[in-house]
């Protein structure tokens, strides 16, 4: 399944709630910092890959930190 990021001008908490309830994996309100958007995209794809491989979140946090933040 392809991760879904909602990028919208709607920023009220109840609108974000609706976004998540309708299937969004992440929600960003405009204006968006391009580096934040890129980091969120990388994170969603990384988590999707790990979930597909059946890994637990706590098992891949060190790898995630290294790959996404280049540390």
Number of helices: 3
Widest sheet: strand order? 1-2
Specify Rg, calculated over alpha carbons. Answer: 13 Å
Count the beta strands: 2
Low-confidence stretches: none
Largest sheet: 2 strands, parallel
Oligomeric state of the chains?
single chain
Distance between the termini: 28 Å
Q: SSE string, helix = H, strand = E?
A: EHEHH
Structural class: mainly alpha
Beta-strand proportion:
5-15%
Overall mean pLDDT stands at 83
What's the overall geometry? globular
Range of helix content: 55-70%
Secondary structure elements and pairings:
Blueprint: E1 5-8, H1 13-21, E2 26-29, H2 34-52, H3 57-69
Parallel strand pairs: 1-2
Brief synopsis:
The protein has 71 residues and is mainly alpha-helical. The protein has 3 helices and 2 strands.
Task: Write structural notes for this entry.
With 71 residues, the protein is mostly helical. The chain has 3 helices and 2 strands. It has a two-stranded parallel sheet with strand order 1-2. Strand 1, helix 1 (13-21) and strand 2 form a beta-alpha-beta unit. The longest helix has 19 residues, at 34-52. The radius of gyration is 13 Å and the shape is globular. It starts with a strand and ends with a helix. The model has no long low-confidence stretch (mean pLDDT 83).
Provide keyphrases for this structure:
71 residues; mainly alpha; 3 helices; globular; two-stranded parallel ribbon; 2 strands
